[in-house]
Design goal:
With 181 residues, this protein is an alpha+beta fold. It has five helices and nine strands; from the N terminus they run αβαβαβββββαββα.
């Protein structure tokens, strides 16, 4: 009877009960929808920006199914706004029949005005490119990790690959040495 009385009072907001410890609620995780692995191979990424993306209903359903390709995508500037160009979101078969689904349509990126001005300056003055790096969920919203990038030359790509292989080899040697000790 005492427990039900405390629960009644807790519902009205007068008392809070601490009968059992509750785990703190975790933030809704940032589940990755898609990665652009080729971007890190082709470009030096100098800065990252998190941008929202304006989507239609069928696109969100397709993203939940993981049907996106960021391989050929990049961001362009039109009229003081930034748009995602070349990303392919393949429509589901069960998409609505009255909607004409264009899988490669240009989608608007949602950024603050100061961020847009910085990005436009970097593109026009310094010759950078805006490359989508990842697409992920954040609090039930789709977010795009947008990278400000410079292109790599062929010899730079080879150097990066050699460096990665050398780091892997160092790790193998260190693990083997630690096992012996």
């Amino acid at each position: 009877m005492a427990a039900s009385f405390l629960a009644f009072k807790a519902e009205r907001g007068k008392y809070t009960t601490t009968m059992a410890k509750q785990k703190p609620k975790e933030k809704s995780g940032s589940a990755t929808i898609a990665l652009n692995k080729r971007a890190r191979h082709e470009y030096y990424i100098d800065e990252h920006y998190e941008a929202g993306i304006a989507l239609q209903g069928w696109e969100v359903k397709s993203l939940r199914a993981g049907r996106i390709n960021l391989g050929d995508a990049y961001a362009i500037v039109k009229g003081g706004e930034i748009f995602l160009f070349g990303a392919s979101i393949v429509p589901l078969i069960s998409a609505s029949t009255h909607v004409v689904a264009d899988d490669r349509r240009t989608r608007k990126l949602l950024l603050h005005r100061e961020e847009i001005d910085k990005l436009i300056g970097a593109i026009e003055r310094k010759g950078y490119t805006l490359i989508p790096l990842a697409l992920y969920w954040k609090n039930n919203h789709v977010k795009l990790d947008l990278g400000v990038a410079r292109g790599k030359q062929e010899h730079d790509k080879r150097d990066t690959e050699k460096e990665r292989d050398w780091n892997r080899e160092k790790q193998r040697v260190m693990r083997a040495r630690n096992r012996e000790a």
